[in-house]
Amino acid sequence: MISNNNVVQRYNPEQIAKPVGNYSHVTKINRNAEWYVFSGQIGIDQSNQIPTDFNEQVTNTMSNIVKILASQNLTPDQVVKINIWATETIDWNHFYEIWERIFGTTPPSMTIAYVKGLGLPELKIELDVWAAG
Q: Do you know which SUPFAM superfamilies this protein is assigned to (predicted)?
């Protein structure tokens, strides 16, 4: 078990297959923690522009996640779960480069789904973030 802080602990049980990606199978939250549920974060930039390039949207989305966490005095270590919704195939090399920079060696639990569309036609990816602090 790896403890990133006194609230969130992550691990991968030896009794099941290793994760097929960069995530943790189990994320445990201290019973005295406060829960934070954030609206889906998208690839919009500070100028309210949504780039047409998928990887630019990924980069902006990850940056927006760090900023929204900071707005609540939270860090990426306190992220419990991320659900990823994408309308096109994810460039995992680009995605994991940013993911690992933000979450390091003990990433949160993750679910990925490819969908036909998101809330706005120009959106190509949206990340749903849960945290505890």
A: YjgF-like
